[in-house]
Recover the amino acids of this structure.
């Protein structure tokens, strides 16, 4: 339960900070379909959302403390990588999302790092089946992100956000999305044997 809530609050942190950064970088503007639009509609300020994000990060750290203390040797590298990915996805020094590295970061955070961390925290070990499950979750998450980026390709390009979708173009992005879904099916088929 501790791991679940830690991951839930970390996920909220990333999404809320992403809304704030997209607003500050003028990627999401009033009338756009991207993001939650709570800032653009005037429901909450960027400053309030930023505070909420850091509150969620604090909750994630609190809930993650027990598993981390129990399995610190295995979890510490995962926690550090997750912190860099979560905080650097759209902000801080890294800004992965704006440098066409969002797909990679989402794959790692929502896939291998997530399931390995939960497996270690819950069972104290990792199996090959867990690694395949992590790959499936990661690839599926990239599929969701890429479908969104495909939808936003013109807006992102016009506003300076560099994504895989706007780097490879609309036609190639559609093919990339098909390959993502085919890879998920193949990985699930492979996972049946483990």
């Amino acid at each position: 339960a501790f791991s679940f809530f830690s991951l839930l609050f970390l996920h909220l942190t990333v999404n809320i900070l992403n809304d704030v950064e997209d607003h500050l970088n003028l990627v999401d503007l009033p009338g756009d379909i991207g993001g939650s639009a709570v800032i653009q509609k005037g429901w909450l300020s960027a400053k309030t959302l930023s505070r909420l994000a850091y509150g969620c990060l604090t909750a994630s750290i609190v809930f993650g403390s027990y598993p981390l203390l129990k399995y610190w040797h295995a979890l510490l590298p995962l926690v550090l990588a997750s912190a860099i990915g979560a905080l650097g996805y759209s902000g801080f020094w890294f800004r992965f999302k704006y440098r066409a590295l969002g797909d990679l970061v989402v794959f790692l955070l929502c896939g291998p790092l997530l399931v390995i961390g939960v497996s270690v925290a819950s069972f104290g070990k990792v199996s090959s089946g867990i690694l395949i499950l992590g790959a499936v979750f990661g690839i599926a998450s990239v599929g969701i992100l890429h479908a969104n980026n495909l939808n936003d390709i013109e807006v992102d390009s016009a506003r300076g956000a560099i994504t895989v979708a706007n780097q490879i173009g609309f036609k190639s992005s559609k093919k990339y999305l098909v390959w993502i879904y085919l890879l998920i099916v193949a990985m699930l088929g492979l996972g049946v044997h483990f």
Notes: The mean pLDDT is 89.
